[in-house]
Amino acid sequence: MKVEDAYSNIERIITYGFLSVRISINGHDLLIKDISDKEMHQMSFFCSDKDIRKTNFFSLAYCTIAIDGVNLIEYRHENLAEIVKFYKKSPALVVFRIVDALNELNQAYIDSLEFLEGFCYSPRSRYLWSVMDPYDRATYTGFKGIDAIGISSVVESWIHINKKLDEEQEYGRELNLTLLVVSASNYKSAKVLSKNYETHTQELKELRDEIFKYGVDRERVNENNKKREMWTTPLSSREDLVKELYRQMTGDKDKHDLYIDQWLENQKQKADNIKKSVDDRQKAYREKIAAADLDLLEPSKPISEFELQRALEQKKQVRPDSPFMEDKEGTGMKERVLRKISTKIIQPEIKDLING
Fold first, then answer.
1. How many CA atoms are closer than 13 Å to the CA of 131, on its beta-carbon side?
2. Cα separation of 23 and 98, whole Å?
3. Residue 146 has what DSSP assignment?
4. Which strands, in side-by-side order, build the sheet including 20-25?
5. pTM attached to this predicted model
6. DSSP letters of 235-274?
7. Angle at Cα 95 formed by Cα 93 and Cα 97, nearest 5°?
8. How far is 145 from 136, CA to CA, in rounded Å?
9. How confident is the model at residue 351 (pLDDT cuts 50, 70, 90)?
10. What pLDDT, in 10s, does the model give residues 90-109?
């Protein structure tokens, strides 16, 4: 599709909310349009997915703008039953012709969406934004009832982009006022900021002018195409199709398979590296424990009576009920305590072995 044709379609979608075509059948003039996503949602309240025949007739009714010059959108819900009856009584060939025309409209609608960003940067788009209320399109177009269709996703995107462009313009005005005030006290800094902003604005304008000219960002499209080629091998001829079928029969891997294999290999390598790091730390710990010279440590031995006596003297105060006090019968209690203490062996701490 040419850029000019796409822009013309997008402008009609924004101003009217749809693309339309006129058909003359059996003496009747029909004006039909594509069905929007909001209308599909509305129709779901009236139709069940199980009744395909009823859903099809309702779809035709929602796609009908006018019959013989009578506007049916303005009071659609009041005329909905009559429109459905009209299509039920129509010959099958008439219905098929309308469906074919709708398919062409839908295809033109989809093809035009690729150029939406380019249209948003056009002077025509900014003009429509300044004179038309997207929530009250009937006032601008003079076509009553089109606001009942609802705001499509295309119009929502157009509104969002234009609001962002308005914010950029407002930011530029506020920045210029700020630089004017700052320049009175710090002229050099204000000049640097102004120059950087002008450079950025000029680069952005050149990019948007190119997108407006071609309808799309060609550099971005090329990058997306390269990424897409990484996953599948494009089939542009019969020979490519034969090679692809042969590859699947023989089990050869394509670029997508090789990419997945490489990703799995990388994940396995990362897991092996983590496991190796843990094993190395454990090995170093065990080697440090084994390298500790236990002979250098003072061997554990039972506490002697002299050492016990010296510890008691350092306390200076002994409780009357201390087990080390002499009992009336002699030193029986004292000996039992000494034997109990002597059975305990002082073990070296693990942290001391490591630090030693």
1. 9
2. 8
3. G
4. 20-25, 28-33, 64-67, 70-71
5. 0.60
6. --SHHHHHHHHHHHHHT---HHHHHHHHHHHHHHHHHHHH
7. 70
8. 10
9. very low
10. 888 888 888 899 989 989 99
